[in-house]
Amino acid sequence: MGRKQIPVVIVAGFLGSGKTTLLNHLLSASGGTRIGVVVNDFGSINIDAMQVAGQVDSMISLGNGCLCCLVDASGMDALLERLARPGAGIDVIVIEASGLAEPRDLIRMVLASDNPRLCYGGLVEVVDGAEFESSRRRHPELDKHLRYADLVVLNKIDRIDAEQQRLLHKTVTELSEGRPVLPASHGRVDPALLFEQRPKRDEVARQLSFDDLDDDHSAHAHAAYQSVEFSSAKPLNPRRLMAFLDSRPAGLYRMKGFVHFGLPGHRQKHVLHTVGGFLRFERSRWEQGEAHHTHLVLIGAGIDADAVRAGLAECVETDPAPSDTQAMLLIAPYLR
Ligand SMILES: Nc1nc2c(ncn2[C@@H]2O[C@H](COP(=O)(O)OP(=O)(O)OP(=O)(O)O)[C@@H](O)[C@H]2O)c(=O)[nH]1
To answer: Residues in domain CobW C-terminal (predicted)?
Structure first.
């Protein structure tokens, strides 16, 4: 089986919406996950707190195993290539788009990468809860940016009241066409929502900040999203699964796991990865002695867990000897 792919997450949002604040939060809450951060400006990242270990040209090694790189758009491809090298030991790459960048161009660039070690990890659009309405009047293109988002962080909710937050949540959900919207203050979202987290390596010198110690905040971060699991020992019907994936439930952000189709010629383990509207299957091998089965984890905000489980239960094959191998053609465009 190949090495795990490195998701590339793009963080975008209008000037001052809180992108760097969110990044700094991800870095300080990364635990044992090694993040490769790509920014336009080193100055904004809280490097002191990360104990700078050494500086190599445009790449700074942060004390906790994370790397921070400075780049302009033209150098991005080469930089991603460097960060993806196994020797760099990076688990996830986060690119902070400049406040005026067109997120679509960055998404295209990541999707166009033919580096087999990289995969698209989603566009996180940070919205300034206090300024959004006035910013979008001046910059109508902000509405369009939300359409490309896979996850929206509705930031600075400490600056608005509950009613404003409710209205904004509604507007942003509409503009993003049903993508999950996560309320936050100071960018404090649970990193587990954005990427797989490694357990903290034993007592790596990591300074706990007061934010980390504040149970109330972490409880909020956790309560803001759900994760739903689904398992089946029986094979899934590819047609029905594709129909489910074509109309993914509102609020769903990520889906990961593997699928057992069990059709003649397609008995491999099919690893599934979705972010927002993006979908990818990869064929893999079952471990020796591993029972063929399906296991999926769905992560989102405001999803109806029972409806999601029921929808997936309907994808379970009812034919005891399925033979519709043609249905696998529906999967083929998403296989890599
Ligand atoms: N009250 C409040 N202030 C916040 C919050 N998040 C960020 N800020 C402040 O907002 C300002 C802008 O935050 P940044 O994280 O620098 O925003 P940015 O999107 O990276 O800004 P640019 O790089 O200029 O586009 C800073 O002064 C932050 O401290 C929040 O949730 N509440």
So the answer is: 225-316
- 214 ligand 1 Cβ < 6 A: no
Q: How far apart are the CA of 123 and the centre of ligand 1, in A?
A: 18
State the pairing for strand pair 226-232/294-300: antiparallel
Nearest CA to ligand 1 atom 7: 18
**64 neighbors 30 (Cβ within 8 angstroms):** yes
State the distance from the centre of ligand 1 to the C-alpha of 185, rounded, in angstroms. 10
Phi/psi of residue 106, nearest 5 degrees: -65, -40
**Count of domains forming the chain:** 2
The domain in which residue 156 lies consists of 6-223
Question: Is 114 in the same domain as 205?
Answer: yes
Say if residue 179 is in the same domain as residue 262.
no
Q: What is the phi/psi pair of residue 231, to 5°?
A: -135, 150
User: Is the predicted ipTM greater than 0.85, yes or no?
Assistant: yes
Nearest CA to ligand 1 atom 14: 18
Give the model confidence (pLDDT) of 156-211 as tens digits.
999 999 999 999 999 999 999 999 999 999 999 989 889 887 776 554 444 444 44
**Residue 123 maps to which CATH number?**
3.40.50.300
Judge if 329 and 300 occupy the same domain: yes
Closest ligand 1 atom to Cα of 96 = 20
Is 11 a member of any domain?
yes
Edge-to-edge strands, sheet with 278-284: 226-232, 294-300, 252-260, 269-275, 278-284
CA 156 to ligand 1 centroid distance, Å: 8
* Cα-to-centroid distance, 302 and ligand 1 (Å): 25
